């Protein structure tokens, strides 16, 4: 049985934006994130800077919750 692939953080953010029901114009009014940049982000063509991510998280009331321990990596040595 194949392991279920987790959504990336940017996929989760795109989903939250879509589910918010806000238009790109409304997001621009609240955050001043360029509508073209937001459009390219939503289409997966580019990323957003941390400042823009912070503004979106604040607007949408998002916060990060860790649901699992990060995988352990082997130390070099």
Outline the structure in words.
The protein contains four helices and no strands. The protein has a domain at about 10-60: 434 Repressor (Amino-terminal Domain) (Orthogonal Bundle). It has helices spanning about 10-20, 25-30, 35-40, 50-60. With about 80 residues, the chain is an all-alpha fold.
Please summarize what this structure is.
The protein is mainly α and about 80 residues long.
List keywords for this structure.
77 residues; mainly alpha; 434 Repressor (Amino-terminal Domain); 4 helices; 0% strand
- Count of beta strands: 0
Would you identify the regions where 5 or more consecutive residues have pLDDT less than 50?
none
| Rg result | 16 Å
Helical percent range? 40-55%
Strand-pairing-aware structural class: mainly alpha
Q: Which outline best applies?
A: elongated
How is the biggest beta sheet arranged? none
* CATH domain topology of the domain at 9-60: 434 Repressor (Amino-terminal Domain)
Topology at a glance:
Elements: H1 9-20, H2 24-31, H3 35-42, H4 50-60
């Amino acid at each position: 049985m194949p392991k279920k692939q987790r959504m990336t953080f940017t996929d989760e953010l795109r989903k939250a934006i879509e589910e918010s029901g806000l238009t790109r114009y409304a997001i621009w009014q609240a955050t001043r994130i360029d509508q073209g940049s937001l459009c390219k982000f939503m289409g997966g063509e580019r990323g957003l800077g941390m400042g823009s991510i912070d503004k979106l998280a604040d607007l949408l009331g998002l916060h990060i919750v860790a649901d699992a321990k990060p995988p352990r990596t082997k130390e070099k040595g």
